[in-house]
Amino acid sequence: MQRPEAWPRPHPGEGAAAAPAGGPAPPARGREPAGLRLQEPSLYTIKAVFILDNDGHRLLAKYYDDTFPSMKEQMAFEKNVFNKTSRTDSKCPPFARAELSDAHHHLHLDTSVPVGLIHPQAIPFSSEVLFPLLLSCSLLSSSGEIAFFGGMTIVYKSSIDLFLYVVGSSYENELMLMSVLTCLFESLNHVLRKNVEKRWLLENMDGAFLVLDEIVDGGVILESDPQQVIQKVNFRADDSGLTEHSVAQVLQSAKEQIKWSLLK
């Protein structure tokens, strides 16, 4: 039987492991290219979450690291991101979104249902001209989009007159960011009673912040299941209501005691 050839011995200084006595030496490990160096895994995957209106104005925002430490830097970043993504989503210009926002209430459309699944006969005859516009704008699309800007990965989606954004680092998994975006949208869709648009968001801002806090905390993803988020938000809302009621009872009882003590 032919004796197997030994591995070539590494040159001194290459950092290869020493060969065992009497056996072949393992292959030398080449140096890892600097550009291909793997990032250490981290739980802090989310840099920011923000919601803008169709003019690019901030409605809700939370930043989870010091990439943009000042309000001025945050607003500039949001403006640049909006300018890039709104041009990408040019199929539906801002003026069309504003018009369709009012029409959405008139037609009682569900923002969680893609337009392509709505039968044209379900829309009143006077609004048939609106259906092709809704379809072309893809306002109620359940999918999101991905953009790369400023060394960061950004996933976003639009709904009526809102733009929702989730921001991660350049090497972050897009599917993970997209799961956060989907959870945020579906949870807001429930809290806002299937009206994910500016008017309803402004009227239910407390609920929107509760939703966001249940999904992301300090940049760490806590939950990506909208059903779990909704249950936790409802529990916190009920608990808050009970607490306020208890405080009101204590204050009323104190007032009664003071009143009776003064009458004595």
Automatic annotation (TrEMBL):
Listed Pfam families: Clat_adaptor_s (PF01217)
Cellular compartment(s): Cytoplasm; Golgi apparatus membrane; Cytoplasmic vesicle, COPI-coated vesicle membrane
GO CC list: COPI vesicle coat; Golgi membrane
Principal subcellular localisation of the protein: cytoplasm
Domain AP complex mu/sigma subunit: 45-236
An example Gene Ontology biological process: retrograde vesicle-mediated transport, Golgi to endoplasmic reticulum
SUPFAM superfamilies linked: SNARE-like
Subunit annotation: Oligomeric complex that consists of at least the alpha, beta, beta', gamma, delta, epsilon and zeta subunits.
Similarity comment text for this entry: Belongs to the adaptor complexes small subunit family.
Keyword terms of this UniProt record: Cytoplasm, Cytoplasmic vesicle, ER-Golgi transport, Golgi apparatus, Membrane, Protein transport, Transport
Name the record gives this protein: Coatomer subunit zeta
Record region (Disordered): 1-33
Record's function text: The coatomer is a cytosolic protein complex that binds to dilysine motifs and reversibly associates with Golgi non-clathrin-coated vesicles, which further mediate biosynthetic protein transport from the ER, via the Golgi up to the trans Golgi network. Coatomer complex is required for budding from Golgi membranes, and is essential for the retrograde Golgi-to-ER transport of dilysine-tagged proteins. The zeta subunit may be involved in regulating the coat assembly and, hence, the rate of biosynthetic protein transport due to its association-dissociation properties with the coatomer complex.
Biased amino acid composition, Low complexity: 13-22
Gene behind the chain: COPZ2
Basic and acidic residues composition bias: residue spans: 1-12
Membrane topology type: Peripheral membrane protein
